[in-house]
Amino acid sequence: MKPVLLIDFGSTYTKVTAVDVEQEALLGTASSYTTVQTDIGEGLQNALTILEQKTGKLDFAERYACSSAAGGLRMITSGLVPELTAEAARQASLGAGAKVIRVYSYELTKKDIAEIIENRPDMILLVGGTDGGNSKCILSNAKKLSQAEPICPVVIAGNRNCADECEELLENWETHVCENVMPKFNELNIEPAQREIRQIFLNRIIQAKGLSKASELISGILMPTPAAMMAAMQLLAEGTESESGIGELAAIDLGGATTDVYSIADGRPVQANTIVKGLMEPYAKRTVEGDIGMRYSIWGIVEAAGIERVSSLSGINAGRAEEMIRFLSEHTEQLPKDEEWERLDFALASLAVETAMTRHAGTLEPVYTPMGLAYSQTGKDLTGVRNIVVTGGAIIHTRRTGEIAAHSLQNPNQLGSLRPARAEFLVDRNYILAAMGLLGEYYPDTALKIMKKELVRTTR
Amino acid sequence: MEKKTLVMGVIGADVHAVGNKILYHAFTGAGFNCVNLGVMVSQEEYINAAIESNADAIVVSSLYGHGELDCRGMREKCNEAGLEGILLYVGGNIVVGKQVFDEVEKRFKAMGFDRVFGPGTPPETTIEALYEDLNVQPPEECEE
Ligand code: B12
């Protein structure tokens, strides 16, 4: 036996997962409540104690961690045109596992700068212009930023022709220059910026957030939790040299405050008479719906879907449903108390999943040209995706997982939405995905095999 | 010579793709850096592409007859977006049917287009005009 420990430092829970990399098997999982105030080493100790009560004493050969504690990796991005480089910067940051607190486009104003400083991001991503293209905007933004007191590292990933100048302007800030996120018009190149972001996260952010206290216990905090999740999904989809993946997939992480959706899929049009409009989206894409969550963001679900749909799905009249929702928004730790509350959570989870996947997936619009029908596609076409991974308490701890997850699929009332047409759902019943993303960094075959074994397949 | 950048595409709901490809090859071969947006391009897309790529000219094609409607307000939008003075060309079969070209040209010039090309204009004519308006010399070898 060769046990390896994988730790996820969350903002409220520290989760631990133990695997045996020799037997390629999951040994156990446990979690413990932590607060920002308590030393995170303490939360880890508690979780480990609980784990070892189940598994017996384990002598870990290696320990790896990811973290979303202390707000996660909080980033601000600034680009030129909202639909182009500003969007590319947002996609790059989200894909790197960041929480994007603000996206700016065009030239920053003094007020914007003040706002940025006030928001205290962990990192700023500065882009704008294709290579050889616009340089005025990023230079102006670098200059304005340089007049403020440095607060965090700045990643410069815009027009390469003025990268040096940006760096010089920002000489009092810690800067990292990397390849342009959009070197040519409409051509995304976000991986170099993502690698840089992750490297800075490793070297600097961890210490700044006081997470290094735990670092003597572990071999390293490798990445933000959403990045670990993304890594797991990519591994599961693509496989390794010796172990095949399951192919294109989407994943939904339904939380209390946000709902994250991932897609590892090409997303190009399936029909010949379709023209793609707007930015070509990344193959590995992550979106975060900050207004869609089962407790803290419960009203966002109601706002997006309407109380009538909550009512019709739950079979609870609108007045009563609102009353219950108000209670839940004020008691965010509350689990369903009885059958009526279960029905409400079912409706909310279903609508959250539907809304989040609708926003993640692309859209198809018919264009009536004189010679007949053509289509214009924006975003990714996920209609052909046949695997949807689901995780998050409200979707796992219920008997109606399949029914909830099915709301992520296409439905006849929303024909223009390019969500998967039909799919099998893979349920993360033991919450191991982020851990497998971590494990995959060193033992990809093992992580993949464990995921294939542990994710439970279900249809509707 | 530093390469000049063109943004090009077929405007509106127009799907005529062949001419666009030919023009792209002709312009690239003539030493221009081309951002080709393809067919069914909105005014905003030309403008956004021109901003990011710091383009020197926008070359609009229209072949299906609705060019006049599609091109209206383009110059004003360019000005709004900070692209004052950017060179604007239009060509193809820009209006419905056979109309007196002088009249057509006048109308498009009034809309703010710097040059207006009638049906059947060969790419070479446009390229000559670009060299002149952008003040550049043809590259020594015409292939990259
Ligand atoms: C093939 C074709 C189609 C195909 C296009 C397939 C495709 N995806 O490309 C299909 C069947 C889809 C089609 C549909 C229609 N078409 Co059609 N089509 C043609 C046809 C026969 C050839 C076009 C072509 O490819 N030519 C070859 C290329 C190389 O030439 P080009 O496109 O003209 O481009 C050159 C020049 O115009 C010039 N140029 C182009 N842009 C610019 C810009 C500048 C600045 C400059 C200087 C020069 C320039 O340089 C290019 C390269 O040399 C023409 C007739 C013709 N012979 O031109 C009609 C034609 C263009 N179509 C026409 C029409 C009306 C239509 C429809 C409205 C028909 C209908 N009622 O259904 C639809 C519109 C669909 C839409 N939404 O766009 C008319 C337009 C009439 C007008 N403007 O008054 C034409 C002229 C036929 C006609 N005589 O009636 N069409």
How would you describe the overall organization of this protein?
The complex is a heterodimer of chains A (460) and B (144). Chain A is an alpha/beta fold and 460 residues long. Chain A folds into 3 domains: 3-70 and 209-218, ATPase, nucleotide binding domain (Nucleotidyltransferase, domain 5); 74-204, Rossmann fold, CATH 3.40.50; 249-458, no CATH class. In chain A, 36% of the residues lie in helices and 23% in strands. In chain A, helix 5 (163-169) links the parallel strand 8 and strand 9 (175-177). The longest helix of chain A is centred in the C-terminal third of the chain and has 22 residues, at 339-360. The model of chain A has no long low-confidence stretch (mean pLDDT 90). Chain B is α/β, with parallel strands linked by helices and 144 residues long. Chain B has one domain: Rossmann fold. In chain B, 39% of the residues lie in helices and 17% in strands. Chain B contains 6 helices and 5 strands, in the order E-H-E-H-E-H-H-E-H-E-H. Chain B has a 5-stranded parallel β-sheet, with helices on both faces. The chains are: A alpha/beta (460), B alpha/beta (144). At the A-B interface, loops of A face helix 2 of B. Cobalamin sits between chains B (13-19, 22-23, 59, 61, 63-65, 89-93, 96-97, 117, 121, 123, 126) and A (369-371).
